[in-house]
Structure formats: structure tokens, C-alpha cells
Amino acid sequence: MHATAASQFHKTPETFQAGAKTLPQRYFASPQIFAEEQEKIFSKHWVLVGHQSQIAQAGDYFTAEIANESLIVVRDKRDAIRGFYNVCRHRGSRLIENRNGQCAAIQCPYHAWTYALD
Predict the structure, then answer these.
(1) How far apart are CA 3 and CA 29, in angstroms?
(2) 115 CB-contact burial (10 Å; exposed 0-12 / middle 13-18 / buried 19+)
């Protein structure tokens, strides 16, 4: 096999550097590009927010923020994993402030609207 052809298949630090490419720095630091990514990517597509092991038991939950939206991921009493916006339908209050925990139900701190886990 020719030496050039062999080097295409044998990856070394030198062969990686020769073909290495990256985005310009502005893509990593621009608030405008970040806002556009939030709008066009993260708010419109499925995004991994956690692993099922974080909510091993019924009533376990964690919160996450994606594209400026707070979310609750909870394991219900039937052992199903559910995801919801972290906001009460009544007055728009944030339902859960903690990053994770365990609960029998989710209750709004404003008017005590309660969301069961069944």
C-alpha cells in the first residue's frame, strides 16, 4: 500500500492537525449567534436534558433550562417519565425552584394549584 494512502487510515496527531478545522472564534462567544441557536435549534428540536437514572423512583424530579424555558422532568406513579414546562397554568408562577428532589405532587407556591403524579 502506498505511504500516502496508508496515512489516510492511520490517524496520528500529525494527520489530525493536517486536516483539522474549526469555526471562527465569534461562533463561540457571540451573543447574537447564541440567541439565534436558541431560537432555531434548541427551542425546536429534542434536546437531552438528563438521564433516567436521575429519577429512579416515583416522585423523583429534576429541572432543566433549555432555550430560556424552565422544564420539569419527573417520574410519575406509573413509572413513566414525563416532561412539563415549569410554570403553573393558573398564574404562570414557577412551580419548582430546586434543581432536583422528590415529591408526592407538584404544587404551585402562588395559589396552591396541585398537579398529581398519577
Answers:
(1) 41
(2) middle
Average pLDDT over residues 45-55: 95
Within-domain flag for 40: no
Q: What is the pTM of this model?
A: 0.74
Query: Considering its fold, how many domains does the chain have in total?
Result: 1
SS (H, E, C) the chain: CCHHHHHHHCCCHHHHHHHCCCCCCHHHHCHHHHHHHHHHHHCCCCCCCCCHHHHCCCCEEEEEEECCEEEEEEECCCCCEEEEECCCCCCCCCCCCCCEEECCEEECCCCCCEEECC
85: containing domain = 55-116
Residue with cell 438528563: 50
Kindly state whether residue 14 falls inside one of the protein's structural domains.
no
Cα–Cα distance list, 52 to 15, 47, 82, 93, 118 (Å): 39, 14, 11, 26, 18
The model's pLDDT over 85-107, given as tens digits with 9 standing for 90+, comes to: 999 999 999 999 999 999 999 99
